[in-house]
Design a protein that fits this description.
The chain is α+β, with helices and mostly antiparallel strands. Strand 4 and strand 5 form a beta hairpin. The two termini are about 25 Å apart. It is about 20% helix and about 35% strand. Strands 2-1-6-5-4-3 form a six-stranded mixed beta sheet. It has a single domain, classed as Nuclear Transport Factor 2, Chain: A (Roll), CATH 3.10.450.
């Protein structure tokens, strides 16, 4: 297993066990976390303290029922991509969705994440974040795209 795959799996393990100390340890001091959209948790979070506050706020909004199951992790020396399924209970109803995270990795730490948690949400009719949707219905979901790092090179095989 590539060391950065191990790093990303550790991030999700720490989240699942609500181990904030272990979670903070995988983040670079100057980490940047991007959450697209217009929900109560959308925005750019800079630095370990702000990112950890985002994690705690998201957990609190889900009444501590937020769960993530990792389905696949792809990683190399500079980048990682995680495909996962998330769920939470809001107002007595379990909501599930697909989540994807694109990561920039540096020196054994997560330096940046582009969260695309609004992709493919079959359990909601409006397409809004299923966790935040009951909190703020005045915004309708707008398709957002991941802003890929400018230095990421993609090539087709063959």
């Amino acid at each position: 297993m590539h060391p950065n795959e191990r790093l990303l799996r550790e991030e999700y393990r720490a989240r699942a066990h609500r181990d904030d100390r272990a979670l903070a340890d995988v983040f670079a001091d100057d980490i940047v976390w991007h959450v697209p959209g217009k929900s109560a948790i959308a925005g750019d979070y800079r630095g370990r303290d702000q990112v950890m506050e985002y994690v705690r706020r998201r957990r609190a909004l889900a009444d501590d029922t937020f769960e993530v199951t990792v389905e696949d992790v792809l990683a190399n020396d500079q980048h990682g991509f995680v495909i996962a399924t998330g769920s939470a209970i809001r107002h007595g109803k379990r909501r599930t969705w697909r989540a994807h995270g694109l990561y920039r990795l540096e020196r054994g730490s997560i330096a940046e994440c582009w969260d695309s948690q609004r992709i493919n949400r079959p359990s909601t009719t409006s397409g809004a974040d299923p966790l935040i949707e009951p909190l703020d219905r005045r915004f309708r979901w707008e398709a957002t795209s991941i802003r890929w790092p400018s230095d990421m090179k993609c090539q087709r095989p063959g």
